[in-house]
């Protein structure tokens, strides 16, 4: 498919980087087809990151992701999932390539500024976690 789900994380929204990061995304030829600012509840963050339940960083991750509003967006582009993971760079910013969003803006492994879905299946699940069908616009 051609959709992926992103979240601009609290470390970035708190530093006023929302506009800067959205511009990086659209400059890279992704179209925004759904968009909102939302502060996740603890229950929602636990559900979103359920795959990481039981890992040592899980509780800290949930605390971080609920600490301030995030920006959730559905992005459209050919090969969206793979191309977006390239654009954001490695999970740990120390390993992220020059020019990637995490290399430029992330503060640490946890406070890494942005999320991108890791498969087409998860892109669909994560998009519908944040948005209803009618909030995802087929206009671009
Ligand atoms: P997402 O796009 O946010 O899903 O990142 P990812 O797919 O590159 O990484 P992963 O799904 O493995 O981990 C989810 C998030 O948990 C990461 O983006 C980090 O914010 C955080 N995280 C992952 N591994 C660690 C870790 O070892 N320590 C800490 N403190 N946080 C971690
Ligand atoms: Mg992930």
TrEMBL record:
Belongs to the NDK family. The active site is at 115 (pros-phosphohistidine intermediate). It comes from the Bacteria. InterPro entries: NDK-like_dom (IPR034907), NDK-like_dom_sf (IPR036850), Nucleoside_diP_kinase (IPR001564), Nucleoside_diP_kinase_AS (IPR023005). It comes from Apibacter adventoris. ATP binds at residues 9, 57, 85, 91, 102, 112. GO terms for molecular function: ATP binding; metal ion binding; nucleoside diphosphate kinase activity. Keywords: ATP-binding, Cytoplasm, Kinase, Magnesium, Metal-binding, Nucleotide metabolism, Nucleotide-binding, Phosphoprotein, Transferase. The keyword Nucleotide-binding applies. Its EC number is 2.7.4.6. Signal peptide: none annotated. Residues 1-138 form the Nucleoside diphosphate kinase-like domain. It catalyses: a 2'-deoxyribonucleoside 5'-diphosphate + ATP = a 2'-deoxyribonucleoside 5'-triphosphate + ADP. This is Nucleoside diphosphate kinase. One of its GO terms (biological process) is GTP biosynthetic process. Pfam families: NDK.
């Amino acid at each position: 498919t051609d959709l992926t789900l992103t979240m601009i994380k609290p470390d970035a929204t708190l530093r006023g980087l929302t506009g800067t990061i959205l511009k990086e995304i659209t400059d890279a030829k992704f179209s925004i087809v759904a968009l909102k600012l939302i502060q996740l509840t603890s229950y929602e963050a636990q559900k979103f990151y359920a795959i990481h339940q039981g890992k040592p960083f899980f509780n800290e991750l949930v605390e971080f992701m609920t600490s301030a509003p995030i920006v959730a967006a559905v992005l459209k582009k050919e090969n969206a999932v793979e191309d977006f993971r390239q654009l954001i760079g490695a999970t740990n910013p120390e390993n992220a390539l020059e020019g990637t969003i995490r290399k430029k803006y992330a503060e640490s492994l946890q406070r890494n500024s942005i999320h991108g879905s890791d498969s087409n299946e998860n892109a669909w699940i994560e998009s519908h976690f944040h948005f209803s069908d009618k909030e995802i616009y087929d206009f671009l």
